[in-house]
């Protein structure tokens, strides 16, 4: 069974929000649009987005790190949002594994949003319908577009190529190779939803490599653990902080 998904490289995401704006632009004018914006320039802005980038500071001075964490619908292989929908508006498509919403059936009850452990769904307050990332389903199969452009808008817009797109069930796909070779992981696997989207873990790299380099050692003289090791030790909870709304 095909399962299309994103693989996001946290090493090269710079938090520029190009993926956010390109997603908003494409989907507002596509099958999902229009996506409401209320008070976009006020102190308390509100709007509907399929994709967001959350930024955090981790660690303690002087060994701090800035983490940019893009997050959207993870297109789970066992999505908890689908069985709770009373009208069948939320469904998982068999041919490509995408989790989608039939807007004609959606009544805006928010059951699916409550069931999603990742906070990946947003109600459009103007239309009173649930919206979410579709992985640009109306674009990736559009034969009117050149083949190189048949990718999600966020993938095409990323200036650092931090976002990869493909079939994670195909062992020869670019996403499967990245997951296999670079230790790609799922977000909060303990929920048993089997999210299709994966993340490539950040790697700690020394800036200068000298013996006195503070990038390599802690104040106590110990080697600085990688972000992945810090997560395992319970020193840094990426999965937890990345799902806060």
Automatic annotation (TrEMBL):
Pfam families listed in its UniProt record = Fer4_11
Its keywords, alphabetically, are:
4Fe-4S, Iron, Iron-sulfur, Metal-binding
Gene Ontology terms for molecular function: 4 iron, 4 sulfur cluster binding; metal ion binding
Domain 4Fe-4S ferredoxin-type: from-to ranges: 4-34, 64-95, 97-126
Q: Which Gene3D superfamilies match?
A: 3.30.70.20
UniProt name for this protein: 4Fe-4S dicluster domain-containing protein
Q: What is the lineage of its organism?
A: Bacteria, Pseudomonadati, Pseudomonadota, Betaproteobacteria, Burkholderiales
């Amino acid at each position: 069974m095909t399962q299309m998904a994103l693989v996001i490289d946290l090493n090269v995401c710079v938090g520029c929000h190009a993926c956010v704006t390109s997603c908003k632009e494409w989907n507002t004018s596509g099958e999902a649009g229009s996506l409401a914006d209320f008070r976009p320039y006020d102190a308390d802005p509100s709007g509907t987005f399929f994709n967001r980038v959350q930024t955090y500071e981790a660690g303690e001075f002087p060994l701090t790190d800035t983490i940019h964490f893009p997050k959207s619908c993870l297109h789970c292989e066992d999505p908890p949002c689908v069985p709770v929908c009373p009208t069948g508006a939320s469904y998982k498509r068999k041919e490509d594994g995408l989790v989608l919403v039939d807007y004609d059936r959606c009544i805006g009850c928010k059951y699916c949003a409550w069931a999603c452990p990742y906070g990946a769904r947003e109600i459009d307050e103007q239309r009173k319908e649930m919206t979410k990332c579709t992985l640009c389903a109306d674009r990736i199969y559009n034969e009117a577009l050149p083949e190189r452009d048949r990718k999600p808008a966020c993938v095409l817009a990323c200036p650092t190529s931090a976002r990869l797109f493909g079939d994670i069930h195909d062992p020869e796909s670019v996403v499967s190779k990245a997951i296999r070779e670079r230790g790609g992981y799922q977000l909060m696997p303990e929920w048993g939803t089997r999210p299709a989207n994966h993340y490539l873990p950040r790697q700690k790299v020394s800036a200068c490599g000298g013996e006195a380099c503070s990038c390599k050692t802690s104040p106590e003289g110990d080697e600085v653990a990688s972000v992945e090791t810090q997560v395992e030790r319970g020193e840094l909870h990426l999965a937890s902080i990345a799902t806060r709304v």
